[in-house]
Amino acid sequence: MRNLLFTFIAFALLTSCGGDSIKIDGSSTVFPISEKAAGKYSKTENSTKVKVSESGTGGGFKKFARKEIDISNASRPIKKSEDSACKAGGVKYIELPIAYDGLAVVVNPQNTWVDKLTVAELKKIWEPAAQNKIMKWSQIRAGWPDIDIKLYGAGTASGTFDYFTEAIVGEAKSSRGYYNPNENDNVLVQGVAGDKAALGYFGLYYYLENQDKLKIVPIDDEDSTNGAGAIIPSMETVMNGTYQPLSRPLLIYISKESSTKKEVDGFVNFYLDNAETVVKEAKYIPLTKETYAIVKERYKNKVVGSLFLALKSTVGIKLEELLKKQ
Amino acid sequence: MKEKKKLKKRLKYFPNSRYYDIQDTLFKYFGLACTLLGVIILSILIIDLVIDGASRINWDFISGDPSTSPEDATVMVGIVGTLWIMLFTALIALPIGISAGIYLEEYGKRSKFASIIEINIANLAGVPSIIYGLLGLEIFVRMLHLGESILAGSLTLALLILPIVIVSTREALKGVPYSLREASYALGATKWQTIWDQVLPAAGGGILTGVILSMSRAVGETAPLIVVGAATFVTASPNGPMDDVYTVLPMQIYNWVGRPEKEFIPTAAGAIIVLLIITFLMNGLAIFMRQHWQRKVKW
Question: CA of A49: how far to CAs of A21, A24, A59, A109, B169, in Å?
Fold first, then answer.
């Protein structure tokens, strides 16, 4: 009996050497898209094993720069520090935008006073200076009731947090500390749905799935060049670029070295060919057909480097124009 | 009437006895209420899970190919991953933990150094699990080049449960009466013979209780495994301990619970039921072994 066990373990250790597989890690926001792509890909003939993990955009790039993964999911463009880490690790990457996501700002349905919020008002609520100062709705706009405001938002490790703070406060990761953070958007939904005085932000689809429990807040960026007045987020307003500044591109980064491997190349091509379908199934907003064509070209020509590093801010960019420039 | 007289007599000599009677009854019911609280909460949880997830439990859910849509997502890859991880965690942690416990209890000398080790082991049990993940990432994944394999994950979880195994082994050994050891020595047995043939069988039940507790903790862990490279979605089951493409049930559950689509709720509930069944089976095996063991030991 004992010998049998030892033989079994030795056998298991010997026969199970890794083998070829495609490794994807990074943003939990982008995860559902890559997951759908992997799921569909595994049903095709001669497919290789795929693993999709979610250690966050930042965590993904760390592994990416150490050549531990082939593809990095990102809910924001790569940062300068991450780009230099890739250079130091000898990793060249191909950057491919894959979808749009909108961030919804929501309140409780019993909240009768909020009809819209301007970016300036949101900044007043969320900037670090608001800590211990902006505590009541009446402080945000005159005429609003004198009750405590309860805030719900993304956890500080997420790309969503980075993006929201950059778009609203003006600097990534700069936020008031006193609010209810959670990485799980469903927890935020529950929080806002159960609290009359609440205000929260999270991925648009979480609002669309819970419309009966939440009230959406139209956002006015006070810039009439991309749609005048307050705009309600929807598939359409995110896609045509009028819901600003709270819509953002989601990206995947492919290591150039990995892309020379047959199985990775096959997977990425499959991913791009089916991008529109998988993005819709993952409940995100697809890019336009023209933009996908440019992205495919970009992959075919193995264009390395990031489009976003030279930009001051990634808020409010028009993907198609940016991609065409190159 | 007679009763009353008796009571009066008693009160005369033990003026507080009625008070102690009440105290006794009070605590009995308080203890019962505490016990029921745990049972009630667990049953509410299980009933809720069964209502949500029973519709998903069928053979296809357990053995079907992985899928990304809530209606045909399956737990097969998670079950296989969890079983591999638990097998190797047990094979690594139990011999090391039990041996360390035996050493500390039976061989170790009482000294300042020993008590420092003792305190540190107890403290290790309180370290947040993600810290073990970070340790595992640096040592097993990177330094020892095990990669993001099942073995690296098992070693990490083994570290996590070692303190529990060591502490409970020591407690179990402490419970064995010293006369048993003395009798064995008196018959000329060596220290090792005494430990192996007398003390360990007598302490076996207690040690197994520790094993149950520690394995139950390991089976539900996600945080350290995320760090050492367990995936959230894989397209095929792992085929051995060196395979680096694997996921475990708790990670599948965590993923499904966090998704916006409501259709994932039954899938998540179904997976939790499967995880509970695996935990019950695992513990059932240990309890069976404990029963079996204790029947053999008679002092």
Answer: 5, 11, 22, 45, 41
